[in-house]
Amino acid sequence: MKRVGFFIVILSFLLSGCYLIPETTPTAMVETAEAIATDTLAPTSAATSTITNTATVTQTSTKTLTPTNTLTPTKTSTPTKTSTPTQTLTPTQTRTPLPYTLQMDAPLYIGNFAHTDAGCDWMGVAGQVFGADGTPQINLVLVVKGKIGLTSIDLAGVSGIPAADVYGPGGYEIQLADAAGATSGSLTIQVLDLNGNALSEAYAFDTFADCEKNLVVINFIAQQD
Fold it and tell me: Which has fewest Cβ within 10 Å: 19, 92, 178, 188?
């Protein structure tokens, strides 16, 4: 800085025409001025060092890494539990009881006393039908269905007919075969009215190949209201 100031002062005197310094040749003055300018403008080693350091800092600047996007997992909704509908029970139809049922101790198995001339060459079912008050019932149809061996049976008798009086009032009789034979649950008997409407359940019964049991006695009685 002092050299620059000195140079400026010299130039001021030169321009003003004052010569306070010893006279020098123009060549010497020019050389002196160039030397001063060269010395003044020449970059110092410190400046060079500073520029070099700055360049180093610029070159070694670190690169900022941009973080990659992190995928956020979507939340999976838990399905709600579907309730299973409860089964609705259909009420069963209440069946109206039929009016006639088996009398106590039926059936009974005895020998054929109504057809003594046939003896063991006969097998049948017979009996009586009573009202709820014990009154014998007439004009009711008794039906026997099923099989005896390989023979299909579908026979009927009517209560209260004269031919069945031997069994008592309201009696009926149905011949099943011309010989005693054994069956097991293959025959049923049921009470109907004259129009074919059921008045009792169809009850199964057995038969025996025994001359002392070739008559099956089955009585029916109406149930109390």
Answer: 92
